[in-house]
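FORM 12-B: Structure-to-Sequence Request
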């Protein structure tokens, strides 16, 4: 940014060193050759103004000094300031006093809370320029007209009796869109909304004889393009070549008023929000940390405080022994880095009880893009937390119950399987022995599924490839009879809904059991190849052996055995297509079905 390189000497009359440093910083942003002289009392200021060999270009005056203040201070400074422009800097927004100050001769009246570097720069430069013009108008009428014309804000002069415009400045032409000739052919009422004309005439009649006072008011004007604007007017009655006239300084405040409405609307939304809102200092004004500067109604109702009880207090008054220290530390780190953060822990009410809060901490910036405050938006999640704890407790109870059921079922299946093994050793009939082996493997299949289901921690899905491996091991242990049967796998890792995994596992058990029993009757070795894959939402399973193959009259549709009957029923339950056929060297079983999230019991067989 290019800086103003004019050589200036400015007297700063300010007793607050912090405010002086801020002024010094603001001026350094726009002036490259500006000398500041700082005094902190009215007496020192008067001494410097009375005795200084180096004249000042402007005076920045704080209205509250240790030895003088207010109107008397202005009069004292004005009495020795000669023609130096005096700009008042104050923290008090008293409109009537600001007008009074202007009538006492000060060049500008600036509020410290609204002060920016550009505003201060503009005020100083305009004040100096106005002062130059004011000096000139003392010498000639031409200089007066120049001041009127060159004032950066619109100025208008009109006849009090006819309302005819007598003069307007360049700023008026620029801001309203009319040429000067058009203005001079118009009357004041031509730029007033029709419904406000009578009111405007009444104001003029009521103030017709007002002399030596400044009239102020807010009005609406119409620009040439039809746009209605809101303006603040400072007006005085003068004699203009024998005619009673009124000169008006006009300031467009349309955007300012819109912003005020927007802020009021925003404040209403925040005030009436169901979520609590806090605003904290951006930078701590004291060593005890960032203080609360605003609360909405939801906060006071939720936490049991009155606003007056927490405003100016540190946010940590809401913390207690149950508040998570890690969450507190997270806030500190985020604030140090000016980064938004989420907070979830307990905060304490005024009565000492606490509740769970979910809150967002968000930094906000001022008009200059500088971080100025923190906004905290939070809500009570105590009911949610209580519900979560109930769910956790219910889950713990169910886990205990599930564990107990698992052990009982596991033990019962083991007892049944053991009894069958005892019966097996007592039998001499081969047919009965085979039937007992079939029953044992089926029970082991159910036990395997039950064990994997328990280990998975979920009842929704099972890793089907793991089930197949376990089933092969069970059948091999039970039926291998010393034969060397090599099993190979070509598989994908597939998860199945429990209501598909169980019937499919039972089918695999029947097929593998049948292979071990019948495929290698006179052989000591054999091979089984299992293929499992998924494609386009369908599951494909193939089990191939290199045994003796099927009899010529074999038909899988004939359900004359329990095994074939089970395969048929379970295939229907899956909605699967199944095939069992011989090849040149062995037998192939194929199963194909659509992968679904089936509901209901795991199998209609069990």
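FORM 12-B RESPONSE
SEQUENCE OUT:
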């Amino acid at each position: 940014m290019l800086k103003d390189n004019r050589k200036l000497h400015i007297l700063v009359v300010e007793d607050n060193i912090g405010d002086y440093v801020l002024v010094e910083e603001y001026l350094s942003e726009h002036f490259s050759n500006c000398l500041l002289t700082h005094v902190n009392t009215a007496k020192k200021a008067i001494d410097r103004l009375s005795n200084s060999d180096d004249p000042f270009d402007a005076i920045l005056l704080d209205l509250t000094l240790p030895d003088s203040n207010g109107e008397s201070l202005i009069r004292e400074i004005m009495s020795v300031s000669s023609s130096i422009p005096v700009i008042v800097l104050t923290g008090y927004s008293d409109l009537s006093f600001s007008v009074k100050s202007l009538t006492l001769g000060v060049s500008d009246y600036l509020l410290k809370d609204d002060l920016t570097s550009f505003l201060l720069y503009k005020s100083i430069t305009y004040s100096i320029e106005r002062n130059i013009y004011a000096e000139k108008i003392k010498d000639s009428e031409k200089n007066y007209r120049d001041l009127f014309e060159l004032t950066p804000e619109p100025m208008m002069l009109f006849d009090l009796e006819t309302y005819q415009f007598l003069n307007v400045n360049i700023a008026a032409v620029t801001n309203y869109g009319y040429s000067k000739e058009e203005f001079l052919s118009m009357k004041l009422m031509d730029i007033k909304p029709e419904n406000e004309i009578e009111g405007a005439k009444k104001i003029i009649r009521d103030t017709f004889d007002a002399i030596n006072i400044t009239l102020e008011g807010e009005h609406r004007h119409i620009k040439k393009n039809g746009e209605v604007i809101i303006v603040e007017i400072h007006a005085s009655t003068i004699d203009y070549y024998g005619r009673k006239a009124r000169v008006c300084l006009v300031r467009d405040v349309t955007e300012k008023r819109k912003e005020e409405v927007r802020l009021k609307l925003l404040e209403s939304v925040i005030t009436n929000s169901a979520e609590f809102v806090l605003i904290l200092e951006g930078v701590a004004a004291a060593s005890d940390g960032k203080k609360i500067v605003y609360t909405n109604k939801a906060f006071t109702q939720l936490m049991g405080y009155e606003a007056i009880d927490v405003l100016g207090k540190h946010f940590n008054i809401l913390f207690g022994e149950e508040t998570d220290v890690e969450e507190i530390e997270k806030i500190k780190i985020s604030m140090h880095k000016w980064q938004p953060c989420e907070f979830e822990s307990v905060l304490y009410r005024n009565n000492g009880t606490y509740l769970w809060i979910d809150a967002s901490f968000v930094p906000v910036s001022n008009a200059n893009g500088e971080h100025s405050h923190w906004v905290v938006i939070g809500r009570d999640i105590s009911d949610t937390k209580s519900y979560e704890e109930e769910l956790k407790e219910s889950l713990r109870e169910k886990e205990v119950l599930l564990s107990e059921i698992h052990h009982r079922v596991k033990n019962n299946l083991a007892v049944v399987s053991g009894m069958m093994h005892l019966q097996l050793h007592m039998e001499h009939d081969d047919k009965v022995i085979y039937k007992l082996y079939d029953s044992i493997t089926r029970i082991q299949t159910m036990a395997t599924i039950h064990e994997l289901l328990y280990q998975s921690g979920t009842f929704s899905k099972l890793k089907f490839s793991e089930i197949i491996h376990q089933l092969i091991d069970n059948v091999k242990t039970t039926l291998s009879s010393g034969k060397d049967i090599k099993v190979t796998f070509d598989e994908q890792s597939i998860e199945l809904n429990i209501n598909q995994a169980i019937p499919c596992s039972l089918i695999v058990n029947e097929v593998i059991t049948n292979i071990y029993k019948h495929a290698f009757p006179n052989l000591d070795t054999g091979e089984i190849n299992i293929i499992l894959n998924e494609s386009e939402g369908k599951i494909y399973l193939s089990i191939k052996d290199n045994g003796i193959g099927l009899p010529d009259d074999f038909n899988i549709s004939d359900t004359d055995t329990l095994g074939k009957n089970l395969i048929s029923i379970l295939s229907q339950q899956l909605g699967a297509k199944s095939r069992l056929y011989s090849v040149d060297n062995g037998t192939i079983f194929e199963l194909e079905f659509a992968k679904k999230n089936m509901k209901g019991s795991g199998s209609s067989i069990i």
